[in-house]
Amino acid sequence: MQLPESQVAVVEAASADEATSVDALAAATELPPETVTGAVFELEEEGLVAVDERVDETIALTDEGREYADTDLPEIRLYEAALEAGADADPVSMGRVIGASGLEGPQVDIALSNYARKGYGAIEGGEITADPDADPSADAEANALDALAGSEETPIDGVEIDDDTLDQLERRGLLDRSETTVREVTLTERAITELMAGIETAETVGQVTPELLTSGEWQDVEFAEYNVEADAERFEGGKVHILRQTAERVKDVLVGMGFQEMEGPHVDADFWINDCLFMPQDHPARTHWDRFALEQPTHIDELPADLVERVERAHREGVGDDGEGYHSPWDEDFARALALRGHTTSLSTRYLSGEQIGEIEPPARFFSVEKVYRNDTLDPTHLLEFFQIEGWVMAEDLSVRDLMGTFEEFYAQFGITDIEFKPHYNPYTEPSFELFGTHPTTGELVEIGNSGIFREEMLEPLGVECDVMAWGLALERLLMLMYGFEDIRDIHGTLCDLELLRDTEVTY
Ligand SMILES: N[C@@H](Cc1ccccc1)C(=O)O
After folding, report:
1. Predicted model pTM
2. I want to staple 432 with a disulfide (CB 3.0 to 4.6 A). Which of 69, 207, 220, 452 is the partner?
3. What PANTHER family does the record point to (predicted)?
4. Residue 162 CB coordination number (10 Å)
5. What is the whole-number distance in angstroms between the Cα of residue 83 and the centre of ligand 1?
6. Contact 78/97 with Cβ under 8 angstroms?
């Protein structure tokens, strides 16, 4: 009989008396394990080999696990420092013991959260005690780390570590479990018969080359069959970040709802970011604490003079018969100062004023999905920059129902159907609403946006004569509701969760 080269090599390397693993066959034939696996499947189908499959579980220490196998677990280092400081007799100040332990950064938290759990002592009111009877040499986790530190990977069947300890180490991120499928191959009777009769190598081609194509030889050769079920090496290809993918999806949804996209500068004059929004110049959000000012250049060159005059008048005198201005200072130089935009509503003011693309006639709908910058304190829901989904609708006679209906329609496209509204205040909208959604795993209400109907004091100076409803929604918060992660830093920055980014499916 004739067989392709790799199959002949496998048949010759395998035996009828003894099962041989794919790895051993790969070594013997000098073929890559994937090729051997493919050949083995083909041979099995031909009835030439029997394949025995089992799943082996192995465990391996993570880098952090290896580090503690070398230097001791942080809680043990804390216990030893506590003993040294006499905490087995009287409580000692925590600061002193931590200082003496040499623990630093996150290791301090790790030590503290495991210390009492493992009976090394107690921590209360800034003081630490050490239990004189605790015995670090009997620490099951430390002993397990030592036992595993010797090899890269250990088959789980061979280790004498109890399940609770293994689970605990896995939870602490000190140990990884993995599964591999081991295939063992034995020749069948039929293979022996064929071998005795003589097996020849059939010329097969594994890959189409330019030469095969140009010479026309491809028409005569026999191609090796692909086995799409064979195990292959996992390949982590590059991929568009889920935030970008979702931003694209949001844009598609809004375009589908009849919106046009706005664009404009990330660095802009306070005039467009704040003054045009009827934000008084002494508003707390306009202090240097909250904005990222520009050092070079500090000011925009030009602002439209007539618009500046109308905006200044609205600030000083208000708009309409009953209008009251802010009676607060207004200074053009202050309005010309440049900063990173804290919201993309600066794009809306540029467009609504007619400065960006000329006069806009109602009905009109505009949006942007762009980055904004705020000097916030970092926490699970705040970053210094995020993406805002800005939007507005200009039409005669808009009401709050139009606003709410638009949100329900928009969020429903992302499977979010339980939006809640809370009355809110913005200097530039009346009424105003904050939007909330429910986090899919924690059940907590998450603020996802801010919205309202632009007030006369804003629209009149911009020269807009009909109603405009508008909003700024946080793209990252939408992602939280869609994919259930709890910390925004899982998707941004150095602490991001690569597995989440790799495996999250963005569905259209
Ligand atoms: N600028 C607001 C969002 C908003 C835009 C337009 C109208 C109302 C609210 C914010 O950043 O929170």
Report:
1. 0.64
2. 452
3. PHENYLALANINE--TRNA LIGASE ALPHA SUBUNIT (PTHR11538:SF40), PHENYLALANYL-TRNA SYNTHETASE (PTHR11538)
4. 11
5. 57
6. yes
